[in-house]
Amino acid sequence: MTASPQVKLKPGDTIGILGGGQLGRMLAMAAARLGLRCQVFSPDPDSPAFDVVLNATCAEYADVEALELFANDVDVITYEFENVPAATAMVLAARRPVLPAQKILETTQDRLIEKDFVKRLGIGTADYADVSSVESLRAAIAKIGLPAVIKTRRFGYDGKGQAIIRQGDDLAKVWEDLGTRSAILEAFIPFEREISVIAARAADGQVESFDVTENEHRDHILRISRAPAQISEALAAQARGIAEQIATALNYVGVLAVEMFVVQENADQSGSPKVLVNEIAPRVHNSGHWTLDGASVSQFEQHIRAIAGWPLGKPVRHGEVTMTNLIGDDILGYERWLTVPGATVHLYGKGAPKPGRKMGHVTEVTPARK
Q1: For 214, which of 59, 90, 178, 229 could close a Cys bridge (C-beta 3.0–4.6 Å)?
Q2: Distance between CA atoms of 141 and 8, rounded to whole angstroms?
Q3: Is the bond into 190 cis (omega within 30 degrees of 0)?
Q4: Pairwise CA distance, residues 312 & 310, whole Å
Q5: Quick one: which H or E segment has residue 113?
Q6: Looking at the domain assignment, is residue 9 inside a domain?
Q7: What is the separation, in whole angstroms, between the first and last Cα of the chain?
Q8: Helical pair 64-72 and 86-93, crossing angle rounded to 10 deg
Q9: How far apart are CA 298 and CA 318, in angstroms?
Q10: What is the helix, strand, coil percentage profile of the chain, to 5?
Q11: At residue 159, does pLDDT exceed 80?
Q12: Whole-prediction pTM value?
């Protein structure tokens, strides 16, 4: 990976954020506490991040003139989502430092390139194969077996752009429904649990990881995260080491999340579990929201510190933490959560609830016994 640009902000400087969702909102709020300003760029006039910044740009990501004006107003640029169009990143990177760097997006935006990158590091993943037609899908299944998961190589999140293939499925229909010419087939992993590691890396190479988080998904959407994960310290150290290895190999600056599966290793006569990398998210991540109230420094502040060229904090967890997403109509019961001792409610300021839409989250902290 190429070297990331060196940035050293001072209080009062401005960070540009691409994307106006809840992650952008929480990044801007973390920056404000550190005396840094933010300007948000988003094509959605109802972006919740607009509510917490003084200046915002509402324009399409392909609007070069708007991008240039935006770049002129800020000192460094970051993003809240990984699917930033390549042309957008290129226009901005020619004018201001973009962190994490554009080259990292090229690796993480494509599932096949990302899997190849992880494999080259000697890190375990599910078996996988490139798929570009029904014929190559059949060949991939012959190699990997069923059940398996087919995913679009780009632009998938919260279960979108993927499907499980089982014996007897109509492969032609599966391929047609996926609606792409570029996909990846992955072996289905019978995992014991899903975990993630949120890691921050500074430009000087310092890496700080939060405690391993255990995640529960429903309908492919994260529902509950718990920290620490109920795994051995040896396995937790392995997971943190993988995230730190990935961040270092990418020459990453900022916060990233590495999602992993805990699986039983059949080859190991002791039956010890191991971890396999599922995906890398080059940004702050939903499974790290617990850090807002459950740790001495949040993932959002760590990201701001990293891209500002400031020292990273040493994360100290305050106790056992549970984060519950408020999805769709869950938001209608927010008042109930306000009465729960030890709970902190975060509402994102979005419009009407829709099925599958993340409207807020609640963090519950049980202090560690002394």
Answers
A1: 229
A2: 50
A3: no
A4: 6
A5: helix 111-120
A6: no
A7: 45
A8: 40
A9: 12
A10: 30, 30, 40
A11: no
A12: 0.94
Domain count within the chain: 3
Provide the residue range defining the domain that includes 183.
Answer: 127-187
Vertex 302, ends 340 and 306: CA angle to 5°?
165
How does strand 343-347 pair with strand 319-327?
Answer: unpaired
Same domain, residue pair 303 and 343:
yes
Task: Retrieve residue 331's tokens.
Answer: 């938001």
Residue at 265: amino acid letter: E
Q: What residues have CB less than 8 Å from 244, skipping those under 6 apart?
A: 199, 201, 207, 209
Other Cβ atoms closer than 10 A to 323: 28
d(CA 20, CA 58) in angstroms, rounded, equals 9
Asked whether the beta carbons of 165 and 171 are under 8 A apart, the reply is yes
Residue 182 has pLDDT above 90, yes or no: yes
**Which CATH number do you get for residue 333?**
3.30.470.20
**Residue 145 is encoded by which pair of tokens?**
């077996």
Cα 229 from chain centre: 18
CA distance 247 to 226: 23
Q: Which of 34, 109, 50, 40 is nearest to 80 (CA)?
A: 40
Phi, psi of 156 (to 5 degrees): -115, 145
Residues 209, 215, 221: CA angle, nearest 5 degrees: 120
pLDDT tens, 276-306? 999 999 999 999 999 999 999 999 999 999 9
